[in-house]
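Project standup — Tuesday

K.O.: blocked on the structure for the chain from last sprint. Re-posting the sequence here as requested.
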Amino acid sequence: MIGWELLFALLAAFAAGTISGLTGFGLGLVSVPLFLFVYTPQTVVFLAGAISVAVNTSVVRDSYREADRRMTVALLVPSCVGIVAGVEILRVVDPLYLRLVVGVLVVISAGLLLKSIHLPGAATRLGPVVSGFSSGLLSTATGLAAPPIVLLLASREYAKRAFRGTSALYFLLMSIIGLAALALRGLVTVEDLLLGAILLPAAMAGKYLGTRLLERISEHAFRLLTLVFTLVTAALGAATAAYALLL
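H.V.: unblocked you, prediction finished:
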């Protein structure tokens, strides 16, 4: 029989795949807070990265032409530096503290964007550098790589297809690098690999549903969805981290 922990993880993977298929991001934002209820932080970081590679490969296949490849490169280069830093942080610092701080900052930033207040520096050349580094660091340290990228693209008012294609391409490449970094540091186990293989079909089914939903929403609704979703999941992540730290 399937235990409640695995059933919960399968539902989380399906929900994460749906959001990722719709927006090009969000797999970690959905899956990480939920996976943490049943798995250790190191396992969660691996699962988020592994499922992200599979789902985003599929998203990139049908959105590559809309992707801003120049922006992807501008984000990916500093992200590589952040990925290495994040692996080291994961080895010595409790990720819960990072999740708490990041969650609060993301809630504030998303709230400002919902009020049409652009983030300082987002439109400058420094914007992708800061966002890419922050995303890479958070990916391996906490499994939550999306918020800096979402906030940057939303602040620059990317159209929904360009948003989806650019974020999916970035997260695909970044996840591959992140998994390699974790493996080289000996932070991936056989049990993690088997668990990822079990959860993957549920995530891919969700991706298919998300892709179908993309055609049904307007540009305005897409922007509102991405910002509200980011705000809510960041608040949830901060709340669960605070709760865990108080126990």
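K.O.: great, moving the ticket to review. The longest helix spans residues 219-246. The two ends are 31 Å apart (CA to CA).
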